[in-house]
Amino acid sequence: MVDFLSKIINNFTFKKTSMTTSIPNKYKSLISLLTELNIILFTKQIETKNKKNVFQIYFKHNFANIKLKKLSTNSHKKLMSSDQLVRSVKLKQFIIVSTNKGVMSNIKASKLNMGGIVLAFLTN
Length: 124
What we know:
Blueprint: H1 2-13, E1 18-22, H2 28-36, E2 40-45, E3 54-59, E4 67-70, E5 78-80, H3 82-90, E6 94-99, E7 102-105, H4 106-111, E8 116-123
Antiparallel strand pairs: 1-3, 2-3, 4-8, 5-8, 6-7, 6-8
């Protein structure tokens, strides 16, 4: 999950308009969350002979100075408890969290009273 998110963050950070990648089914929730955040404009499936689930991902870059930063790596995972996520919502921070119920925002995780692995956060 972290490697896939790193690939998306790198393409987004360098202001590329789109990227082509294979998206496994287990990462579809991450793609839908990034679409809700208006980081991804839309995805389009591409027909290929060899690979399945190849998509063109189009990024939305017309908002002011928002950066997406990765926090966890494969070797070092940043964890946040449900209390810390509730505090982050009160501070109006936006965090992408991987929980045992899937990838979600800190807002949804705090409503479900769940903690998890912090994948990335949005900064101004």
